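Changelog-linked ticket: guanosine-5'-monophosphate example.
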Amino acid sequence: MNSEDVKAIEALLSKPQKIVIIPHKNPDGDAIGSSLGLWHFFNNKGYNVKVVVPNDYPKFLKWMPGTESILNFEKENTQSLACLSAASLCFTLDFNDLSRVGQMTSVLEGLSADFVMIDHHRAPSDYAKITYSDVTMSSTCEMVYNFIVALGGLNEITEDIANCLYAGIVTDTGSFKFASTTSATHLTAASLIEKGAENALIQNRIFDTNSPERLQLLGCALKNMVILKEYQTAYTTLSQDELDTYHYKKGDTEGFVNYGLTIENIKFAVIFIENKEEGIIKISFRSEGDFSVNEFARAHFHGGGHTNAAGGKSDSDLPTATSRFTELLKSYKADLNS
Ligand code: 5GP
Ligand code: MN
């Protein structure tokens, strides 16, 4: 964060504020970890502060300290609306366009609060008074750590804050293995462990809580995988029927898309997941190297994200979405084989 932004934040925080912190829809570990990390920081300082999530998040994130204080816009609508409309300062974390909060979009657009964006995705929209956007960051949690340090709060990082921020870094870096992991990421993680983050326990709570049904659903996704050697691409699908068979619960498909990339010479992996309730196919894109899935998702599937990890959606049915995808690959053949 530049010094001008730090000064502007300090000026905002020197006045009494009603702060609301908002992560994106279907929040992941980075979204919840950064929101709760920042929530603890402000809460400990005596600010009036609340986290409002657009909808529910997976059980494997619900151990995070402060989780019980979160308001769910979908389930606790009246309370959430009251909290949002009273807010004077609104932090949006781990997203950079108001369309990413689902049903909350029009509410946020109508707020008179000052907005602060903290985010690491590509192509930020221009809605915030202060935009702390950095695509070189591993995670929003790493940025919240920098934000707290920039405000002189290094010594105010408690064990709870450290646990939340460490969880988000672990989630977004795939346990420190994705290309987005830098020396700064490791230094931040080291500092968080010094502050009390329980690194092994966090990894266990996020990754080692499989139900038998989830592993069977993974088996189904692996069985459905289609390898397109000529495009160095692997894609897979999960239909609503398959999700129902294995009693799908929120978060169960997290990480499935990455398996495609573990195949030798595959550098583009995709999963198409049917969601009958929303009438869409949710798509996750992953790549290795220079092929930008952010651009691909943006250009063809109403989505976006990072160079190597992005998401999007399709309004068609599953077979139509996959055949359209396969057709599209033809015009990317050179890029995918470069
Ligand atoms: P995932 O595939 O795990 O849902 O998301 C991968 C990355 O892309 C995440 O950083 C996520 O925030 C972003 N992302 C997922 N879905 C969308 C989408 O529909 N639109 C945009 N702009 N970004 C998305
Ligand atoms: Mn993130």
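Closing comment: Example verified and attached. The mean pLDDT is 98. The longest helix spans residues 29-44.
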